[in-house]
Amino acid sequence: MTDRYLDFANSPLGQRLLAALGLPQPAPLRRWQPKSSEFPGPVVVGGPPDGALGEPIRRTLAAWGAPLFSEAQGAAPSGSAHALVLDASGIVAAEGLRLLFDFFQPRLRSLAACGRVLVLGRPPETAVAPSAALAQRALEGAVRSMGKELRRGATANLVYVAPGAEEALGSTLRFFLTPRSAYVAGQVVRVGVPSNGLPGAAWPADAARPLAGRTAVVTGAARGIGAAIARVLHREGALVIGVDVQAAEVDLQRVCNDLDGRALPLDITAPDAAQRIAERAGGRVDVMVHNAGITRDKRLVNMREDQWQSVIEVNLAAQERITERLLAAGALPPGGRVVCLSSIAGIAGNGGQVNYAAAKAGVIGLVQAYAPILGSRGVTINAVAPGFIETQMTAAIPFAIREAGRRMNALGQGGLPVDVAEAVAWLVHPGSAGVNGQVLRVCGQSWLGA
Ligand SMILES: NC(=O)c1ccc[n+]([C@@H]2O[C@H](COP(=O)([O-])OP(=O)(O)OC[C@H]3O[C@@H](n4cnc5c(N)ncnc54)[C@H](O)[C@@H]3O)[C@@H](O)[C@H]2O)c1
């Protein structure tokens, strides 16, 4: 649905009026478009010349033809920068945090609209000395705060890279430094070494179609976020199998036909759902996206038992059952990917959604519990937790609550289904083997829950 405030805020009259009234002025976000540049402006990489991550970052970006400026070589772009990237992995004590100030303070003002701040550090839990652990943990506060200070659609994020995972950063840089991550802000993610050492971090032969030759199953694909995920995974080269309830079959067929995919009308709570998914996929599910979800909102005191049961069943129990059975049947091959849709309601809690928030928090538990189990087989499992995304689900929210939901984030607007889909595409990329057990919020840095 259209966001009239966003449109008005970017009209000449709206810009003047909102500035005069001191009201929020959300900027139109630059999203990935075919043929548009991945790097709309210079990328400045900073950090010590001997930093562990600087060299792999520069090499990766140079291979993509990014307009790269290296602080170590004393180079600086003349105009505004699209991205400011800092290798902070070498900070091992509180005094070293000065590097953040020295790098960002003089440059933030010239960051372009929809620009990127990306800090890369070491996971604090891998630090040997307490001083290094606290210094690396401090990066979180700095990045989340920069995210709240940035304007004009710019974002800040932090990636902790485990020792040994330096060469596994390609897909993560491709996501966080380009318009694919338009609505991802204030996030902290970890890239580790794949637990079984399988060659999942290999860069695909066709960079534009990294999922070529892979089969991706997307539940709830008839509309909203699920349809967007199906489209983006198709764009990335996958054969898409869309699943949705019988009642949505017409829409499901339309989406799947457009993508040369296959439709599977199926209620995911059916006892034989996993078996039917595996059969439709020819016994091999390279990518499983558990997107289907429902809400049955009521304050707990007014909630009926069936409203509780159905939400837990669709949003959580079915995801677990299908994952477990696909695994047991050997239908998730090495290099496989599972992504589960959670929600910021499952992180922050939400009045009127005790059932939904329980299920969505359970999804995070599911991902964290299964990550080591799947990881030992070369499969990853991660969660995406959307904030306010413009879909039929959120169009059903009463006006005042909907408007508050849209504005209560650093970007001052709701996200689009494609923003969630791009996050899923990052997680299922063949180069994302080191990203396992993570929860990525796609929420524009929502004020709720962190
Ligand atoms: N829209 C948001 O702002 C938002 C925010 C946080 C999380 N999410 C989550 O993202 C996912 C997609 O949300 P959406 O906004 O696109 O919802 P939506 O209601 O627009 O679409 C959900 C789809 O899932 C299908 N579905 C429901 N039950 C099913 C079942 N038993 N079997 C098969 N298919 C079933 C529906 O028919 C529908 O096509 C959900 O898991 C939702 O909880 C959405």
Characterise this structure.
With 450 residues, this protein is of the alpha/beta class. The protein has 3 domains: 1-30, no CATH class; 32-191, Rossmann fold (3-Layer(aba) Sandwich), CATH 3.40.50; 205-442, NAD(P)-binding Rossmann-like Domain (Rossmann fold, 3-Layer(aba) Sandwich). Helices cover 37% and strands 16% of the residues. The protein is built from 15 helices and 13 strands. The protein has helices at residues 4-9, 12-21, 54-63, 98-104, 130-149, 170-176, 224-235, 249-258, 273-280, 305-328, 345-348, 354-375, 392-395, 399-407, 417-428; strands at 43-46, 68-70, 81-87, 111-121, 155-161, 188-191, 215-219, 239-244, 262-265, 287-290, 337-341, 380-386, 439-442. It has a 7-stranded parallel beta sheet, with helices on both faces. Strands 2-1-3-4-5-6 form a 6-stranded parallel beta sheet, sandwiched between helices. Strand 3, helix 4 (98-104) and strand 4 form a beta-alpha-beta unit. Helix 7 crosses helix 15 (417-428), helix 9 crosses helix 10 and helix 10 packs parallel to helix 12. The chain is globular and about 60 Å long. The mean pLDDT is 93. The chain binds nicotinamide-adenine-dinucleotide (NAD). Nicotinamide-adenine-dinucleotide binds next to helix 7, strand 8 and helix 13.
Strand order of the largest sheet: 9-8-7-10-11-12-13
Count of the domains: 3
Compressed to H and E, one letter per element, the order equals: HHEHEEHEHEHEEHEHEHEHEHHEHHHE
User: What CATH first level of the largest domain would be assigned?
Assistant: Alpha Beta
Please give the number of β-strands.
13
- The CA-CA distance between the termini, in Å, is 27 Å
Radius of gyration: 22 Å
Q: What ranges have pLDDT less than 50 throughout 5 or more consecutive residues?
A: none
What would CATH call the architecture of the largest domain? 3-Layer(aba) Sandwich
Helix tally?
15
- The CATH superfamily of the largest domain appears as NAD(P)-binding Rossmann-like Domain
Overall pLDDT confidence: 93
Class inferred from helices and paired strands: alpha/beta
CATH fold-level label of the largest domain: Rossmann fold
